[in-house]
Amino acid sequence: MDSETDDEYEKISDSSSVLDESSRPPQGTEVTALQAPLDATISVTLPSELVEQILLLLDTESVLTCRLVNREFNKIIQSSTLLQYFLACKAAGVIDNPQSPLSCIERLEALKKREDAWRKLKPVFEMTISVKHQTASSISRSTEGVYFLSDENLKDLNYCHLTSFPQDNPRWTKIPGHGPALNWPGILVNFVTALYEHDLIVNLISSDRGNYADTVQRHSLDLVLLKFSTGEYHPLACRPRIHVQRSPEVRPWIVSRIVGDNLALVIHSDDGTFSDKLFIFDWKSGRRLLQHDATENAYLDVVFLSPQLLLVPNSVLSHLEVWHLPPHQIHPKPPIQILSLRLPAVSPKYSIFEFGCYGEPNPFHHSMPHLPPRPFFSSPENSIIMVTLRLWSTSGRPASYNLIMHRRALLDTIQTWTSPSLLEQQEHLPTWLTNEVTMHQIEDPEDGSVQFDAQSKLVSTMRHLKSSPRTRDFPTFATSRTSRTFPASTDSGPSSVSSGLSTNSSTSRCTFLQVPWAKWGPSISRWFQVNETHAEWITRSNGQRCAFSEPNLLDRRKLKVSVADFNPHNFRRNAEIMARLRSGECDNNSSNGNKGKEEEKEEEFEILDHKGVFLEEVYMGLKCVVYRAPDEYDFDLVLMDEQRLLGLKLNGEGWIESVKVLYIG
Q1: What percent of the chain has pLDDT over 70?
Q2: Strand intervals (E) in 260-398
Q3: What segments bear the compositional bias annotation Low complexity (predicted)?
Q4: Most exposed residue of 229, 335, 564, 568, measured as fewest CB within 10 angstroms of its CB?
């Protein structure tokens, strides 16, 4: 092999580090004939443009392997801007945006600049957005390129589009919490968006219905579905206002997420007047698909892992609930819990008081028709999930942690622990919990249509031996059917169960496996101990990155900012660079040995120094690279979105005075 060829193949080996599990086809997918080994003569008989299109059908590993076939293949791949952009997207964990007007070469250049900018953490430009309408109970959150703040009147939302250009002048715009309705008496409790997928914002409002006979359950919680770009009721929503429940509490804690047609929300009572609940709605039809009753103080958060899977942290049981949402069918099945993933056992000296989760970008069902014209966006499947754990101590010393996992790795773990073959092996183990699910089938007397509504509750929190074979179909156990008419209720919800219509009901018991932390968590996780301020603001991650900050000990008015990057390609790239730097200090013969040690180190587990917070050793296998910003800043905490770091300046009462935008790219 001549020196020119050596240089070419050295170039190949440099980029081969993009090979990782995330770049391969998902397990169980069919491999087409085009993914079989290619004949080296194919490039001689086919035009290079056609070879390029064939190669685009392959996974990343196969494309890189094809570069080793011969010089002609290598030349085609190296000279193809389209293939280079394809490989760069896979390495960066981003998805191409077909709506972007940029050419392929412009997209590739933009992606290279973006990745380099996030490594250096040197903003392209900085901009400060003043805040004049914040209150003590304000909602403050950035999502999908927009920063939201609730208004001082507690009824409306103020939002500001976060700019990508220094010449822009961001302005706050008000959107009524109630939409176009007039004389609305309620208050805004929270909101949820699906801007890129549906141009949708859903406001969660609480209204005093004191004129009802039940003066205890006097507050009504409702969803108002609006088209974000216009502020009008959303045209795809059959019912622009959906009733959720009535309660004695005016401002319960509510968190909601939307993917596809499904809207999931958890409701937590701050004063313990009612048990926490998980609801799932079809927001387009307005139908309630599930109401699951948990214990008090169980739920604070929920996140979609995929369009069909929900992750719900449970503080009381110290585990992550995994719920499956079946696709819409003629004979629908209800959402059911399919797995419980336990955390490390907590010391008796500590107790969990906050257990949240976060993961952006949100997965989407089919497409994202309302994306801005950016050339690419972060892949939801390759993003990280951040779990926040806050604990009280009997000694008065709280502890807070961020637990980071790759979404794809977590999905693979769930698939493993719910596979029929593995479940059969676990039959004899006392690790099964049970939910009781009642399925209501309601017939509308006017048009004869049938609707379904499920109600669920945990009936066994004790681990027990499984008593009968498990089937993946619903219902699973001891099903009893009744046919009766339910009496009318003062709490007229979106379901017809309580509306006096003819209803058939079936009750079943569904069991699911409870997996100890040591069996599922160490290899896919990394823990960070964080301060209380950091733990309170969970919107610190996006894609495969997570932002951290710490005060300068010499000047506490200044904040040092860093970003942890969990992209495996970037970790390996950094490891190779460090190995080369070390090998430069040694003789040439030790180069391969050092690289081997680096690869071996990548497989090692680290141990979290939790100082007795947990009852077991907490091992961590997920690796990351931490980049530190060269400058220091005078804001109080840092958040992030896909393109920016966001520095919040707080006043003495903890309210937001300004948002400093550090545009990275």
Answers
A1: 80
A2: 262-268, 277-282, 287-293, 303-306, 309-314, 319-324, 336-342, 350-358, 376-378, 384-393
A3: 489-505
A4: 229
